[in-house]
Design brief:
Keywords: Plasmid. By secondary structure, this protein is mainly alpha-helical. The protein is about 55% helix and about 0% strand. It has one domain. It has 3 helices and no strands. The longest helix has 16 residues. The N and C termini lie far apart (about 30 Å).
């Protein structure tokens, strides 16, 4: 079910990058994640969701590698 590296080669403009970062920060700050979002976050149960620390590290990586927003 899991797509083989679906983000490989994806280019985001500033608005898209900002939306991704906002979504990650919302996920990080959420007390309860809706089931539909959990399905996306876990690729339909195929992967473990990122921890709060992993989300933070990903945001930092996106900011440093992606040019930041």
């Amino acid at each position: 079910m899991s797509a083989p590296n679906p983000a490989a080669g994806v280019t985001l403009d500033r608005a898209e990058l900002a939306a991704v970062l906002a979504g990650l920060r919302l996920l990080q700050s959420s007390q309860a994640v809706p089931a539909g979002i959990t399905d996306i976050q876990t690729d339909g149960g195929e992967v473990e969701p990122l921890s709060l620390e992993q989300i933070d590290a990903l945001c930092e990586r996106i900011n440093s590698e992606g040019g930041g927003v």
